[in-house]
Amino acid sequence: MSNSRVxxxxxxxxxxxxxxxxxxxxxADGMVANYTSDATAIMPGSxxxxxxxxxxxxxxxxxxPLKGTSTYNDQVSIRFLGKDGAIVISESAIRFPGGxxxxxxxxxxxxxxxxxxxxxxxxxxxxxxxxKLVPAQ
Length: 137
Hints:
The protein is α+β, with helices and mostly antiparallel strands and 137 residues long.
């Protein structure tokens, strides 16, 4: 088995791409398919303490306020922690039907994704986002 960071980075990007595609399809099960069972998600005003809780919340959101949405994602960096850990920083936003392809800065968040390699597979262990601060003009 190769220990190539290029291969690891490609595998992590594939996990993210699969999650984004599942979001666009409104598929909560698919969105969390590559999360660890003990994954956490923190967003302003909420803490989700397991893959099951994340899935349940996303299923409700996809039936309600997030129905028909997709996401905008721009990977800023990836940093490996040893051989089995990685942190991905991205700038992201929710795209609502009829909205801009690239959301305005005020709609974006800075996101941190923590990945863990378990049994040879990269999985999302934690996610956190906070609003992007737009410089005052």
